[in-house]
Amino acid sequence: MRACAHRPGRAFVAATPRIACRMLLAALVCASGAGVAAQPTGPSLPVQAVSEVGAAVPDAARPLACRTLNASLEALLAEVAQCQTDAEFLAQLGFLLNAQGRYTEALDHLERALMLNPGLKGAQIDYAVALAGIGDYASALTLVQDLLADPALPSGLVPVLQRQIENLSVSMNTGAATPDKPLRVRGTAGVQVGYATNPLGSPNLSSLILTFPGLPVELPLDGSYLARPGSYGRADASLSMRYDAGNDVLYDFFGGVQGFRSVLAESSRSQQAEFAVERMAGSNSLGNGSSPVAFYQGLSVLGLHTAAGVRYQSQILTAGVELPGLTGWQLFSSDPAPNCRSRVGFEAFNRELSSNRLLSGLYGGVSGQWRCYPAHGGYWQLGVVAGRDHGKQQTRPGGDQIQYAARASRLWLNRQWAPSGLERAGNLLVVAAVTGLQDTTAYSPLLDYGRVRQIHQFNLRVELQQQLATNWQLLWGVDWFQQKATLRLFTFGNVGPYVALRTVW
């Protein structure tokens, strides 16, 4: 049997180190060859436990008080003190606690059951239910994947577990609400340090040529216009909430803050804050609801302040329709088709640069988004936008701007990309983006004789995500950015590695 990777979760008992104990459980579960005990069908949220027939421990070998698998939750709780060594009893108790949404209590009993008997397949699935119930989707997803990779798994459970992997992948990214828990909250916080060739985004110019009529003049520039390598730090925190209001209506709320600073210059310090709310009526992002079509409306506010004096804010309105995604998956793979959703809508921005109001503008455009969560885990996402930014003042350099952007991201879970023997290497995230801008008039007659400015940005990020413990991740990555422009003043690049520590709850 192949090696089995497991992400740490909660502690079994107070006297046992958390990480070590969870790793021990993972090893025991992976080493088990076949299911032993039967488990009844559990709650459907956020994952569903399934029945499995196996060779149960003979009743004669079990204490009489623990032979109450058909008893109520209250009856089992009354006997729990004397049944701490009975795996089937503890597994049934955990299942019933899950059914009532008491996931934290269920975890303690299910963990002990699996330590006593790692082969209890039903208990393993209920354990994943409990992990997802407390919001630890990453650990739940890994456990379900381990079960699916077990060659002794009954074939009837394969499609069920594949659906649960899909649902868990979605929940990891949406914080999906459930009928018994209409409000879901997801928080993140992290710190990142890195080294880059040009963290300040300088154009790397020692001089600038001004094209006065008939007489170009070359002006020397100070050292601030030269690209310099150096380290930087970033800290961020966010809180997102999804509320199921009933009648196929969902509300999403988001708030986030970010700080940045480079050791190269005190003026590099910046702070950014964003707040957003969105209403969706119809089918939700999991494809649930009375209608396959959903309509969304959103409002967000963004603010940026830097030590160099830049003060920027924008108000953004979005609206559109969300539809089931069309993938054509069967043309390329025999795996179950992924859960896909597509969005088409419009965006309207009010951009206000209070430190230089001449650059402010009003933007209007269209947007499209496609996202898929394959049955084997991970996700695909593609987004495109295009529109026109109208200058609030006729004298804005460059006039109106034609803008477009495309962004694609792919998350592979460790088993999807890591070679044999590196199953615990971590998840792999790749993000690629292209952005374009073209002015409608000359930016300045003094720059290349009034040449119209065009800007193209290219960004690529490759990141390895390693689970350290429950709700904690270590991120390793490389970020590459290149901006090309028809005017040399707006051309620069930046590349460098980074490491980050992130917690999710």
Beta strand %:
35-45%
Order of helices and strands: HHHHHHHEEEEEEEEEEEEHEEEE
* Number of helical regions: 8
Query: How many DSSP E strands?
Result: 16
Low-confidence stretches: 1-58, 284-290
Strand line-up in the sheet with most strands = 1-4-5-6-7-8-9-10-11-12-13-14-15-16
Number of domains: 2
Shape designation: elongated
Secondary structure layout:
Elements: H1 18-31, H2 73-79, H3 87-99, H4 103-116, H5 121-133, H6 137-148, H7 158-174, E1 183-196, E2 207-212, E3 215-220, E4 230-246, E5 249-262, E6 265-282, E7 294-306, E8 311-324, E9 339-353, E10 361-373, E11 379-391, E12 401-412, H8 414-417, E13 427-439, E14 454-469, E15 472-485, E16 492-504
Antiparallel strand pairs: 1-4, 1-16, 2-3, 4-5, 5-6, 6-7, 7-8, 8-9, 9-10, 10-11, 11-12, 12-13, 13-14, 14-15, 15-16
Helix pairs in contact: 3-4, 3-5, 4-5, 5-6, 6-7
Structure description:
The protein has 505 residues and is an alpha+beta fold. It folds into two domains: 18-174, Serine Threonine Protein Phosphatase 5, Tetratricopeptide repeat; 195-220 and 292-504, no CATH class. It is built from eight helices and 16 strands. The strands form two sheets. A 14-stranded antiparallel barrel has the order 1-4-5-6-7-8-9-10-11-12-13-14-15-16. A two-stranded antiparallel sheet has the order 2-3. A hairpin with a 2-residue loop joins strand 4 and strand 5. Helix 3 packs antiparallel against helix 4. The longest helix has 17 residues, at 158-174. The protein is elongated. The model is unreliable at 1-58 and 284-290 (pLDDT under 50).
